[in-house]
Amino acid sequence: MAAPSADGEAQLKRQADEVRALKSSIGATKAEVDEAIAKLLELKSALEPLQKAAHAAKSSAEAEAAEAAKKANIAKAEADKVAAREKKKAAAAAKSAAKAAGADAPPADGAADGAGKGGGKGGKDRGDGASKLTGGKPTGGKPPVAAPDATSPPAPAVPPTAAAAAIGNSNREFVVRHSASCAPVLSFAAAKLGGLSAHFVAHAEPGVVCLIPTSHGGGRLCGDVRIARYFAALAHPARAVAGPPPPALPPARGTDALAPPPELVALALARARADEWLERADAELRTAGAAGLAELDRALAMRTYLAGPEPSLADAAVFAALSANGEWARAKGAAGDKGAEYAHVSRWHAHVSALPAFSALELSFLGGKAKGGSFEIDLPGAERGKVVMRFAPEPSGFLHIGHAKAALLSDHFATQFDGTLILRYDDTNPSKEKGEYEAAILADVCRLGLRPNRITHTSDYFEQLIGAQRAMIERGDAYVDPSPAEVQQKGRFARQPSFYRDAPVAESLRLFDAMLAGTEEGRQCCVRAKMDYASENGTLRDPTTFRCNMTPHHSTGERYKAYPTYDFACPWVDAHEGVTHALRDRQYKDRDAQYHRMAELLRVRRVELWSFSRMNFKMCLLSKRKLQWFVDEGRVTGWDDERMPTIQGLLRRGLSVEGLRHFILLQGASLNGNLMDWDKIWAENRKLIDARAKRFTALTAHNLVHLELERADGADAPPLCAEARSLPAHKKAPELGMKLKWYSSSLLLDQTDAALIADGEEVTLMDWGNAIVTQITRDTAAGSVTRLRARLHLAGDVKATKKKLTWLCADGPQMPMPNVRVELVDIDHLICKDSLEEDDALSADAPFLNKCTKETHAALAEPGVRTLQRGETLQVERRGYYIVDRPYTRPADPMRLIFVPDGKNMYGYRKPQL
């Protein structure tokens, strides 16, 4: 019987993949699955007889082949044993002969390489906008790697470490193929929102098809919506399409114990709303007129996003539909993003357009152009799917806000062009670098939401860089200079050539070997590239490319004694890792010419350089040396102190990653290096955190005033005992869930509020209603109010009152859940001068040091704050935004809340506005 054809086998496999994909698809119907299974069974029945016959024939042939292979292996093993015995005898004979001649046996391969590396003459700032930091590679030597030919193709990538695999793995990449007429809008948005590694390619096959990697079960999935739902479920298994569920709350008194928890109700509503807009986006909104957009405007009136507290597929679907809507184009053209016709749609559209996932979607599939200051960032020569960016910090400290710009811009370009991002530790100076810094950098990269495709080290290529340096010397493009550093500096300043510039190649090679061995003679030398010693550009005056350093390297130990400089290693590693575009700080613009000239001497391909302006803020230090002084002097608790401009410090203070990214992209391609005010970045941050900040009440604990609500008949009677009512945690964001608010006849007011109330005045108790003050008891000696009495007047007009008061229930036997002790922390700048000059020395009595950088205020907060977790943002009513630095653990330990500036107020404690 004939063997089954290859086409038949392939058809069977495709059908099996289709069944598997349909079973795992959220949107597949039972009828579709049953039909696919029936077709699969039919194909199996047709191929089964052919497969059995082919298997029998194959088994017979395989048995014969296995027997022959077994005999061959036995013969080879015997031959290997004989060869090993002969080799051992020859080695013993050679050793005996050498001993008889009075000579030592030659060293083993690699023993003369030395065992340690050093870093050398200073470590100047490099021009890539990333001063360098570290991760956690084990110590120990590396096997030598043969240096490649200078014109060879890029070396294969070093396998990622375990930490790298946790961030991104190209072996797990999804491939989404789509036809020219069927853009994968939703699946693209879902992949970007969920941070999934997916490659989108145009294909002749009709529709949208996702090739699922073997790490996720393999197979194919068809249809943009199905693929999008699959991606959403992978990224957020607990919430699929909508936002995260709010934390669980105990049921309020009087509620049905069997009723579903409020957080599940909110999640179900968000999912239903997402489904609704997914269906309506393509069916209605693409062609909707004024009435349809007006309805969308009403739906967005109280929401930041269409479904849930985070952007979802619903937002992506509506965003894509509006790109083809004529009425929306007309309204935008007439009034711009601040148009009055559809104000809420305009506000929503401007916000989501600034998110990286939506900007990439617009540029990729919606025919959009980068807008305004936000995204009008041109990357010369960029091709979709071929862009490779790198972020290359030195592991010599913690990342600060200056590094964040280089990191986030690199990630933005990699995302925008569907490219690759490499995190590379530039570990070429062991005098300044530590393994702990590598770990800190990796943690900060994760905090920033970056997902590098690869993690590498410059030290991975030390052997190859040594070979590249040797080749330059042999070609006469570099020489070894044993002159003292002072002599070299004077020669550069005078634009005079070094005495050793034209030394014989053999002599330079001898000295280079002495450097690698770390001999006394070699330690006096450095290698310099032959460029232009008389150039107007000082960076071209024969720059140093290799120097000695006897300090053990945190990763390679004592294997090396000489190390490449950043200026030498960076062009070579960029080219061999496939980098297409490298970002560099504009203040090092003069070094761009050196970078390209070095690449020419190394004979590697040219990498495009893209300059950006460093973020310089008033009253902010970015020098690692100066920041270290504050740590060493105990003026801050560490590099993650909320007063530090490090990534950890700023995130701890409440700056969101989205706010930081949005602010950076708003600057676009601007090369303006002026000092910026902090209020701009905090204002952008406020726009993003407001939608997810739950609202709570907290009062200054000192000198609180008791307010007794009088018992009255009718609906205005206050509760005799405390009772809890379920209220929205954020009135304009119902998807954040509910909170419990306690009510009783005994309340607490802030002393500042109470002092401004007049006898008989009607005031508004927020989240309750109006009350008329009937009695005020004052301490005239202290000038304060001690007690108030009032009568509820819930029928009163809350808009007519001048004073809106925040309040808490007084603790006591009537309160089953007491108020929570909190510390409200205000933070100030470390220095009180806009910018430090070169001669501004740091000392305990320096006039520019801020004498008071932190103030802590004891307060009481409503019981509901105990559900908040560390890093969660909230709004304290009438005071401002705070971030939880220390969550609730027990009554004796107060929570710690740090004030988050909002662009207008830098501090939380100001006179309350009544």
From TrEMBL:
<dbReference type="InterPro" id="IPR020056">
    <property type="entry name" value="Rbsml_bL25/Gln-tRNA_synth_N"/>
</dbReference>
<dbReference type="InterPro" id="IPR010987">
    <property type="entry name" value="Glutathione-S-Trfase_C-like"/>
</dbReference>
<dbReference type="Pfam" id="PF21972">
    <property type="entry name" value="Arc1p_N_like"/>
</dbReference>
<keyword id="KW-0547">Nucleotide-binding</keyword>
<dbReference type="InterPro" id="IPR053836">
    <property type="entry name" value="Arc1-like_N"/>
</dbReference>
<dbReference type="InterPro" id="IPR004526">
    <property type="entry name" value="Glu-tRNA-synth_arc/euk"/>
</dbReference>
<feature type="region of interest" description="Disordered">
    <location>
        <begin position="57"/>
        <end position="162"/>
    </location>
</feature>
<dbReference type="GO" id="GO:0006424">
    <property type="term" value="P:glutamyl-tRNA aminoacylation"/>
</dbReference>
<dbReference type="InterPro" id="IPR000738">
    <property type="entry name" value="WHEP-TRS_dom"/>
</dbReference>
<dbReference type="InterPro" id="IPR020058">
    <property type="entry name" value="Glu/Gln-tRNA-synth_Ib_cat-dom"/>
</dbReference>
<dbReference type="GO" id="GO:0017101">
    <property type="term" value="C:aminoacyl-tRNA synthetase multienzyme complex"/>
</dbReference>
<dbReference type="Pfam" id="PF00458">
    <property type="entry name" value="WHEP-TRS"/>
</dbReference>
<dbReference type="InterPro" id="IPR001412">
    <property type="entry name" value="aa-tRNA-synth_I_CS"/>
</dbReference>
<dbReference type="InterPro" id="IPR009068">
    <property type="entry name" value="uS15_NS1_RNA-bd_sf"/>
</dbReference>
<feature type="compositionally biased region" description="Low complexity">
    <location>
        <begin position="91"/>
        <end position="112"/>
    </location>
</feature>
<dbReference type="InterPro" id="IPR049437">
    <property type="entry name" value="tRNA-synt_1c_C2"/>
</dbReference>
<dbReference type="InterPro" id="IPR050132">
    <property type="entry name" value="Gln/Glu-tRNA_Ligase"/>
</dbReference>
<keyword id="KW-0030">Aminoacyl-tRNA synthetase</keyword>
<dbReference type="GO" id="GO:0004818">
    <property type="term" value="F:glutamate-tRNA ligase activity"/>
</dbReference>
<keyword id="KW-0067">ATP-binding</keyword>
<feature type="domain" description="WHEP-TRS">
    <location>
        <begin position="4"/>
        <end position="61"/>
    </location>
</feature>
<feature type="domain" description="GST C-terminal">
    <location>
        <begin position="244"/>
        <end position="381"/>
    </location>
</feature>
<dbReference type="InterPro" id="IPR020059">
    <property type="entry name" value="Glu/Gln-tRNA-synth_Ib_codon-bd"/>
</dbReference>
<dbReference type="Pfam" id="PF20974">
    <property type="entry name" value="tRNA-synt_1c_C2"/>
</dbReference>
<keyword id="KW-0694">RNA-binding</keyword>
<feature type="compositionally biased region" description="Low complexity">
    <location>
        <begin position="130"/>
        <end position="150"/>
    </location>
</feature>
<dbReference type="InterPro" id="IPR036282">
    <property type="entry name" value="Glutathione-S-Trfase_C_sf"/>
</dbReference>
<dbReference type="Pfam" id="PF03950">
    <property type="entry name" value="tRNA-synt_1c_C"/>
</dbReference>
<keyword id="KW-0648">Protein biosynthesis</keyword>
<keyword id="KW-0963">Cytoplasm</keyword>
<dbReference type="Pfam" id="PF00749">
    <property type="entry name" value="tRNA-synt_1c"/>
</dbReference>
<protein>
    <recommendedName>
        <fullName>glutamate--tRNA ligase</fullName>
        <ecNumber>6.1.1.17</ecNumber>
    </recommendedName>
</protein>
<dbReference type="InterPro" id="IPR014729">
    <property type="entry name" value="Rossmann-like_a/b/a_fold"/>
</dbReference>
<dbReference type="InterPro" id="IPR000924">
    <property type="entry name" value="Glu/Gln-tRNA-synth"/>
</dbReference>
<comment type="similarity">
    <text>Belongs to the class-I aminoacyl-tRNA synthetase family. Glutamate--tRNA ligase type 2 subfamily.</text>
</comment>
<dbReference type="GO" id="GO:0005829">
    <property type="term" value="C:cytosol"/>
</dbReference>
<dbReference type="GO" id="GO:0005524">
    <property type="term" value="F:ATP binding"/>
</dbReference>
<dbReference type="GO" id="GO:0017102">
    <property type="term" value="C:methionyl glutamyl tRNA synthetase complex"/>
</dbReference>
<dbReference type="GO" id="GO:0003723">
    <property type="term" value="F:RNA binding"/>
</dbReference>
<keyword id="KW-0436">Ligase</keyword>
<dbReference type="InterPro" id="IPR011035">
    <property type="entry name" value="Ribosomal_bL25/Gln-tRNA_synth"/>
</dbReference>
